[in-house]
Amino acid sequence: MRPRHEQPLACAAVDAVEGLGSLFAIVAVAALAPFLVALLPGPKIPEVAVLLVLGVVIGPQVLGLAQVSEPISLLAAVGLGFLFFVAGFELPPSLLRGPLAKRSALNWLTAVVLALVSAGILHWTGVVLDTAAVAIALTSTALGTLLPILRDAGVTERPLGRAVLANGAMGEFGPIVAISLLLGARGAITSLVVLAAFGLVALLLAALPSRLGPRFKEILLRGRETTSQTSLRLIMLLLVGLLAIAGAFGLDVILGAFFAGVITRRHVSPGTDERLEAKIDGLAFGLFVPLFFVVSGMSLDVQAILESPGRLVLFFALLVVCRGLPTLLWFRGWLPRPDLLRLALYTATGLPIIVAVTTIGLESGVMLPANAAALVGAGVLSVLLFPAAAHVIGARHLGAASPASVAAPDR
C-alpha cells in the first residue's frame, strides 16, 4: 500500500496525463482545421466555424475525447484575451472619429434600443429573467473573430473592411463597458468610478514607455531579435498585466485585453514592424485563439439546445434584427448594395462577448441555463453562417463597388 503522502501525487499525475490527452485532442483538431477548410467543397467556410464544430465533436457531449479542465479553461481565457488584444491592436484611431465613427455609434445605439425592447418583451412573457444581460449579448459584434476572416478576404483596407472595423469596435467596446457597469455586483455609479479608475491606470501604462530612458530603449531594440524577445515579452506582460488589473478591479478581463491592444498600437503601428506583428499573430493564431474556439465548441450545451431549439432560433433572429437591420439603415448609400448586405452580416456576427455575458449571467444566477445555451448557440450559428454568406455575396459581386462609394466612408 502506498504511503498517504504519495496518493495526492499519484492523483495529480493521473490528472496531468488526462489533461495532456485533452490538450492533444484540442491542438490536433486546431491543426486539422485549415486542411478541412481547404478541402471542403463549395464556398469557403470560415476557419473559426470549423474549429467550433470540431470542438463540439471532440467534446464531452459527442465523442468525449477531451474535457474542459481548469488548466485548459485558463488557456482558453488567454485565447479570449488575445482575440480582444488583436481587435484593439488592429483598430485604427482614425476610425474612432469622423462620419464613419458617428454612424457606427448611432448604429450601435439603435441596436441597444431594439435589444432592450426585445429583452423587455421576453422578460414580460417570462422567457428571460434579466433584460440587461440578454440585451448586451444582442448588441455585440465579434470583431476579434472577424479580423482573420477579413484578412483572408483581403478587405481590411477597403471601405467595407473599414466599416466592419468601425462597427465592430462599437460592438465590442460598448458591450464591454455595459458589462462592467450593469452586470457587476456593484451599483452603476460605483462601477462607473471603478471603470474610470481602470481607464486612468491604462492611460498611465500607455504613457510609460515614452518616459523611459535611452538605455532601456537600447536594451529593447537589441533584444527584440534575439532569444530575449524583449518586445514580445513586454507585450505579453502588458496583456496579462491588464487582464489581472481588470480582474482585480472587478471588471471583465476582456476590457483589459482590448486596452492592451490599443496601448500596443499606440507604440507599434501595424505595418511599421512586420516581424513583431508576425510574432504576435503566430502566438495568437498559432495556439491560443484556435484553442479558445475549440473549447467554446466543447463547452456548448448541445443537450439544452436540442431540448429547446425554439430559443436558439429566437435569439438567432434577434441578432439579425437588433444588430443587422440597423446597419442597412445607417450605412445605406455609403456602400454598394452587395457590400451593404455583407456589412450587415458581419456586424450581426457575435460570439466572444456572448460567451462572456452568459458566463457572468450563469454565475450570478440572473440567466436561465437554457437561455445561456441558446444565446451561445445563436452566436455559434452566426459565426458559422454570416461570414460564409458574406463571402458568397462578395464572390458573386466582385468589383461591384463604384468609385464614389469607395471614397464615401472617408468623407
Mean pLDDT: 79
Beta-strand percent range:
under 5%
Question: Roughly what percent helix?
Answer: over 70%
Which CATH C-level class is it? Mainly Alpha
Secondary structure tally, helices: 18
Architecture (CATH level 2) name: Up-down Bundle
Give the low-confidence spans. 9-14, 399-411
Number of domains as seen in the coordinates: 1
Report on this model:
This protein has 411 residues and is mainly α. The protein has one domain: Na+/H+ antiporter like fold (Up-down Bundle). Helices cover 77% and strands 0% of the residues. The longest helix is centred in the first third of the chain and has 34 residues. It is globular.
Features:
411 residues, mainly alpha, Na+/H+ antiporter like fold, 77% helix, disordered C terminus
Helix-strand layout with pairing:
Elements: H1 6-39, H2 47-58, H3 70-90, H4 99-124, H5 131-138, H6 143-153, H7 159-182, H8 188-211, H9 214-223, H10 230-248, H11 253-267, H12 274-299, H13 302-307, H14 309-330, H15 337-347, H16 352-364, H17 369-396, H18 403-407
Helix pairs in contact: 1-2, 1-12, 2-12, 2-17, 3-6, 3-11, 3-12, 4-5, 4-7, 4-14, 5-7, 5-16, 6-7, 7-8, 7-15, 8-11, 10-11, 14-15, 14-17, 15-17, 16-17
